[in-house]
Amino acid sequence: MRIGFVVNDIATEEEGYTTTRLAMTALNRGHEAWLIGTGDFAFDPDDYVRARARSAPGAKYKSTKTFLHELRGPRGKVQRITVDDLDILMLRNDPSQDQGRRSWAQQAGIVFGRAAMRRGVIVLNDPEGLNNAINKMYFQLFPEEVRPDTLITRDRDEIREFARKHENDVVIKPLQGSGGQGVFRIVGDQLGNLNQMIESISRDGYVVAQEYLPLAAEGDMRLFMMNGQPLRYKGKYAAFRRVRSGDDIRSNIHAGGKKAQAVVDDKALRIAEIVRPKLVADGMFFVGLDIVGDKLMEINVFSPGGLGSAQSFENVNFTVPVIESLERKVQYMGHYQRNFNNVDMASL
Fold this sequence. Notes:
By secondary structure, the chain is α+β, with helices and mostly antiparallel strands. The protein is globular, with a radius of gyration of 21 Å. It has three domains: 2-124, 3-Layer(aba) Sandwich (Rossmann fold); 136-142 and 215-317, ATP-grasp fold, B domain (D-amino Acid Aminotransferase, Chain A, domain 1, 2-Layer Sandwich), CATH 3.30.470; 149-212, ATP-grasp fold, A domain (Dna Ligase, domain 1, 2-Layer Sandwich), CATH 3.30.1490. A hairpin with a 2-residue loop joins strand 18 (286-292) and strand 19 (295-300). It has helices spanning 18-28, 64-72, 108-117, 127-132, 156-165, 194-202, 266-281, 307-314, 319-335, 342-346, and strands spanning 2-7, 32-37, 41-43, 49-55, 77-82, 88-91, 122-124, 150-153, 169-174, 184-187, 207-211, 220-226, 229-230, 232-233, 236-237, 239-243, 258-260, 286-292, 295-300. The strands form five sheets. Strands 12, 13, 16, 17, 18 and 19 form a six-stranded antiparallel beta sheet that branches. Strands 2-1-6-7 form a four-stranded parallel beta sheet, sandwiched between helices. Strands 8-11-9-10 form a four-stranded antiparallel beta sheet. The protein contains ten helices and 19 strands.
């Protein structure tokens, strides 16, 4: 199997990233595994998509640190590959990380992924589905019963009215973005700062106002979904908890949150079952659900991370079933001469 992993920039990848773990596991199982940056694509005059790509020189690795060091080092394989000849192209770049200076890169994976699909490359997650999920409006397309009460607007008066409706305890954040950037909790006497916070967020677009969920004080759970189902391997669910640090309302790890073991209960499984039909319909192969109590806080469909965190608590290498699933998809395409629709293939 020949597989390409699209990332924002190969130079900024880290040893703990889920993409790094997936690429190393693919290589260890005897496959070609290439990393491609969003700026490395080309659509050539002969109508083929190609890319400058890197691969590690060894046949097997025990450490992601060594794997990534050798991939980026002088011994790493650097080649201009034909993307159209790959079996799998995984779009693992996060568009929100390229806002501003690199806005040209935000949809590069989607655009070139679409072109590669023409020649039978399996592109995951599906480019059309990702294009529809480019901002948090996608979240509003899921059933209301699993979402917090939410308002999306640029109007200050509407946000103030929404805050009063929820007893002056709401969270506001930008419609586009991730990682806890620009997230504020407005409670009680802080309403006096609301205009300033709205102005700060609305400079870059629309504002999302959301009811505050008291259970969020205990953090959230990241539950991974694969092929429309909770990812489970050797009897263990791929999940972990993110717990806040101090008074910071964000539980994101790089925002100071701490990791803990998760208990995947009936509430979490109910949410997974409710969102499953849409994830399948949109061709979302690998997804991260962020859950608080019986509510879904966010759906990460671009580059859900933390698979290594789940592994550290469950003592199971969850990258193995992901790569095994990709292997099966390639076998299916071989049996049927690459005649499957990409959306259908995403969840088979």
